[in-house]
Amino acid sequence: MTRKRKKKASKGIANLSQTILNILRKERNKTFNYKQIAAILNVNDASSRNQIIKKLQLLLSKKEIEEVERGKFKAVVTTEYHTGILDLTSKGSGYVICDDFDDDIYIASNNVNKALNGDEVELYVYKRRKHGKLEGEITNIIKRAKSEYVGVIQLSKNYAFVVVDGNKMYKDIFVPINKVNGAEDGDKVLVSLEDWPDKADSPNGKILKVLGKPGEHNTEIHAILADYGLPYEFPTEVEEFANNIDTSINDEEIKKRRDMRKVLTFTIDPKDAKDFDDALSFQVLDNGNYEIGIHIADVSHYVQEGTILDEEAYERATSVYLVDRVVPMLPEILSNNACSLRPHEEKFTFSAVFELNNKAQVVNEWFGRTVTYSDARFAYEEAQAIIESKTNTIPAEVSLTGDTYLADQAIADAVLKLDELAKIMRSKRMRAGAISFDKVEVKFNLDEDNNPIGVFFKTSADANKLIEEFMLLANRKVSEFVGKQKPEKTFVYRVHDEPDESKLHALQNVVSKFGYKLNFKDRKSTTASLNGLLSDVVGKKEQNLVDTLAIRTMSKAEYTTHNIGHYGLAFDYYSHFTSPIRRYPDVMAHRLLQQYLDGGKSANEAIYEEKCKHSSNMEYLATKAERDSIKYMQIRFMQDHEDEEFLGVISGVTDWGIYVEIIDNKCEGMVRIRDIKDDYYEFDESQFAIIGRESKNMYQLGDEVIVKVKDTDLVKKHLDFNLIGKPN
């Protein structure tokens, strides 16, 4: 045998040892005999099996494996393994976020071992030789983050590949020709990841659905929903089930409820709302106090546990609000009709009724099922007109009818009194340490083909805050009523943890560039200085940037059965009770409250905690889909303005470029460093800036700059700008 062939043979033997070891380590809680290993390696000849037996004996002598019982082997585990979530970069390397370590663990691309972005993984950790920093290798995939991806199909004669949207999927998905499901070359598709064989370079998949041609409006909206696993239509059997529900307001059911049909009741909602979750009732009592009812659609009366309708609502967990449509949690027969508290209709409601005095203190409370009748429907703008003019005149420019009209005087009086009480409650809340986030929302005016023809900003006026305060009151008091019961009862809380200290200090670093100072000495000073900051930036060029960064310092609110209070609202008890048409946790809160009002025993905590986790996760996905749809519409809007120059603010700085948000329309795009030609620019992390090597010219976070559209990519949702310079 030549020296060269000897070397090759020994390498093959070593490889076999390593392969066997990898098999045993991957399934280190199982035992394997030589036949099972041969089957995994797909060999069945005598020579190969003898090689496996020899290698097993060799590994046994090295104490790398152990013989648990005759002929059955198991890996000897000397390494401590950890678990975490993989966050991939666009280059194919990544970081594992792991509770066992303060810092994220770097994973080189050759150690990712077929894990994908968001997967729950097992890894072992070692110190990097060069810098002594921690690095890891993924040893096992515990749970895939997702099994369905959106991408564009590239068809060949005998097979296809799907190029997945986004930059965090480092492999195309291989699809056999018999699994392309009628897709044509270049179609945008939803592909299911089926398996990833050990020796295969790419994962295998099959096409589940053809979404359409890339760049077309409906294709891209459906792609956003599909990418997050969100549905855009109801199964036929669910629609049929909902259509067959008895939605009549019958006497038999009325007798079981508190009849409040004769009490003055009205709704205040956005002018384009179709589902009215909540109504307010108002009456002055003989003792001079006010009885205020917060009446919520009694969704749990129609959506009964154990039905296919309930299962579908639970799976969805939330309505999804995209720029051009709502994907509802409940079929239209319920969301827009039976459950919607429409004017001049009797409805079954679940109510929280409070007696308040002139200082907005709650003197009495009552919770239970009711029947109500809405006397009127107002848009926020109409209620705002009453608050501002202190009259019952609704001017034509804000009227839902388009004509000036006089609202019922009793309702106008009620709105003014409710506004007065809401302002007292809000001020009390702020003094207690609540944080006031009034972030500007971007909205689009769309034509009949869903083309964006204008951008406007939605802000919160007194009428919005009036409704908000009474919804907060109901949510707080319902959860307090259950939470204070002894023995303790299972309930669905909406909790919000304290902000992360390191994020607060990062915020301080950024806002100091604009001359703002924060004080984090204790909770009171933290909330006071955050509120001061949010108030000081109103109307300034840095407002949106500061608002966004301040929100990012906050923990994420979530649903749980373990109450820790709500930091942002400064409430010890808080739940979601007021929007059951669009949120499943509110349906759960209704059911639990009724169970306890009926004297029932505490519900199973483990079951409800699992439902809370699912609801929090679906809310997170819906929020991401909503943001993606806004980004998509912003890019469509900017396609029609490619020749214009815009004034923007630098909203982010990285080593590859600067992000710029246009002041007039809040569209954000990127100026890549390589596209700035007047100098060679370098990223200075400490100053949140890029600085020209020769000119020392600086572009810093918060600076105003003039930009022009360079490129718009609807499919990848990228908006690139060319930098013109700073305004004179």
UniProtKB/TrEMBL annotation:
One of its GO terms (molecular function) is RNA binding. One of its GO terms (cellular component) is cytosol. It catalyses: Exonucleolytic cleavage in the 3'- to 5'-direction to yield nucleoside 5'-phosphates. Residues 643-724 form the S1 motif domain. It is found in: Cytoplasm. It holds the Pfam family RNB. The keyword Nuclease applies. GO terms for biological process: mRNA catabolic process. InterPro entries: CSD (IPR011129), CSD2 (IPR040476), NA-bd_OB-fold (IPR012340), RNase_B_OB_dom (IPR013223), RNase_II/R (IPR001900), RNase_II/R_CS (IPR022966), RNase_II/RNase_R (IPR004476), RNase_R (IPR011805). Keywords: Cytoplasm, Exonuclease, Hydrolase, Nuclease, RNA-binding. Its EC number is 3.1.13.1. Belongs to the RNR ribonuclease family. RNase R subfamily. 3'-5' exoribonuclease that releases 5'-nucleoside monophosphates and is involved in maturation of structured RNAs. This is Ribonuclease R. The gene is rnr.
